[in-house]
Design a protein that fits this description.
This protein has about 300 residues and is of the alpha+beta class. Helices cover about 55% and strands about 20% of the residues. The chain is built from eight helices and eleven strands.
Length: about 300
């Protein structure tokens, strides 16, 4: 009899705890549909595998408290729409020697050279529904789109352009083509930034390329120096030439005026000479002697026995 009472007490105690556990489980399941969506996140609800809502506004839920059915019925998927995500693409980069080209990453440029590239990508999620449901691995699709664009765009650029002056243009073209491919896939992302982080030549030809590149840089420097010298010397030579021409023209005008003045004076004297030659001859003679004496200054005459004449 006592054993039966003890068994009944144990059974009642176990039953009470079992009921409590069942109630707790029911409460937990009932509350499992209550989710807190953080700032910078969005959420969608899948009810038996189908998205809840007919329009994007009804399908996407922003930050705050979200009420859904228990997880047995509803699945809540959160998407970090407010974050900038970063991805590194190393598909076409090989560190070290390229011993087997079929197992190493590289691109072939438009001038049939090989370049090795790696890129850093930043993207944002613009369509949470497409990002969560369109593909299983969005990162893989983004990597594939950028890798494919790097190959296609490289075929339109020379290796020197990709490594030097055309690097920015190449990067822009890769980003635009990648975005176009991602839009066609419909995964709901937007590439906000793409940057080539490592750009170079294979290890086997790197020293030769750097030598050629340094030579090209020296040649460009010399050409620029020559251009600057040309731009400096030509204006100076033109200014000097203009100055000489102006001086020659001024001398021409002066000499011509002086010659004309002497000519007019000669014709005046000639007219007088024709009218009275003797008077004009004496006048001209006296004028000439006067001018000569004025230039000589002092004349000393010595004795006849001394043949020297000293003129100061």
């Amino acid at each position: 009899m006592k054993k039966n009472l003890l068994f009944e007490d144990i059974l009642r105690t176990v039953s009470r705890y079992f009921v409590v556990i069942i109630i707790a489980v029911v409460i937990i399941i009932a509350c499992s549909g209550i989710r807190f969506i953080k700032s910078g996140e969005s959420a969608i609800i899948l009810r038996f595998g189908k998205i809840v809502g007919d329009t994007p506004e009804e399908q996407v839920h922003d930050a705050g408290v979200l009420f859904a059915f228990p997880y047995i019925i509803d699945e809540v998927i959160t998407i970090p729409t407010g974050s900038v995500h970063e991805l590194t693409v190393n598909t076409h980069f090989t560190d070290g020697e390229m011993t087997t080209y079929d197992r190493n990453g590289y691109v072939i440029t438009g001038d049939n050279n090989i370049a090795i590239l790696s890129a850093s990508i930043k993207y944002t999620i613009t369509d949470p529904v497409a990002f969560a449901l369109a593909v299983k691995d969005p990162g893989y699709i983004i990597n594939a789109a950028v890798s494919n664009a790097m190959i296609n765009v490289a075929a339109n650029y020379a290796v020197d352009d990709i490594l030097t002056t055309g690097k920015d243009a190449y990067t822009k073209a890769v980003r635009e083509m990648s975005q176009k491919k991602l839009d066609e896939c419909g995964i709901g992302v937007s590439l906000s930034h793409l940057e080539l982080t490592r750009v170079g030549m294979p290890e086997e030809v790197r020293d030769i390329y750097e030598l050629v590149n340094s030579t090209n840089i020296q040649a460009s420097t010399r050409i620029e120096q020559a251009r600057q010298y040309y731009e400096t010397r030509i204006p100076g030579a033109e200014a000097e030439a203009n100055s000489l021409i102006a001086e020659a023209r001024a001398n021409y005008s002066n000499y011509t005026a002086a010659a004309n003045s002497d000519l007019y004076e000669f014709y005046g004297v000639l007219e007088e000479y024709n009218a009275n030659p003797e008077v004009v001859r004496v006048r001209l003679y006296n004028t000439a002697i006067t001018n000569i004496i004025r230039k000589i200054g002092t004349v000393k005459i010595v004795d006849d026995s001394d043949s020297k004449i000293i003129i100061n």
